[in-house]
Amino acid sequence: MLLETTYKNKKNKELINDLVGKPFSILQSIKMGGIGSKRMIIEEVSPNLRKILNSVSDLNYGNIELRPYGILIAITKGLQNYTWVIPYYQFYLYKTNGISIHAQGKFVHFRNNRTHKENALFFKKMIRLKTEYDQQYPHVDSL
């Protein structure tokens, strides 16, 4: 689900908390070694996300926030902020030339550069949380 989050909105906050859980507490965040990635350059997005990118040749940036039941991808377009809410059960991560996150028929591909390498521990933490979620709530196999 993609939300316009430039201004604080009680409805958006409740919706995000319902989908991916409330933010980790400060104590939990410290124990985990942080819950947010560093700012990364967006290399490519799916066609249905292009409307939230800068239309001129500026670089597009995004970052990821961990939540108990999913992740939030924050993307800035000029002075507007957008948040893509992804529950873990819809979330897929591909390590291509960089990192590609897929969900809900959309994707964001982050560039493989210095900040990507600095976020290596963050990506391991994100994969660990998704694995723990998948073990706690196994998918139903189809017959």
Describe this structure in words.
The longest helix has 17 residues, at 120-136. The protein contains four helices and eight strands; from the N terminus they run E-H-H-E-E-E-E-E-E-E-H-H. The protein has one domain: Pleckstrin-homology domain (PH domain)/Phosphotyrosine-binding domain (PTB) (PH-domain like, Roll), CATH 2.30.29. It has helices at residues 10-20, 26-32, 114-118, 120-136, and strands at residues 2-4, 40-45, 61-67, 70-77, 80-87, 92-96, 98-103, 106-110. With 143 residues, it is α+β, with helices and mostly antiparallel strands. An eight-stranded antiparallel β-sheet has the order 1-5-4-3-2-8-7-6, sandwiched between helices. 28% of the residues lie in helices and 34% in strands. The two termini are 29 Å apart. A hairpin with a 2-residue loop joins strand 7 and strand 8. The protein is globular, with a radius of gyration of 15 Å. The mean pLDDT is 88.
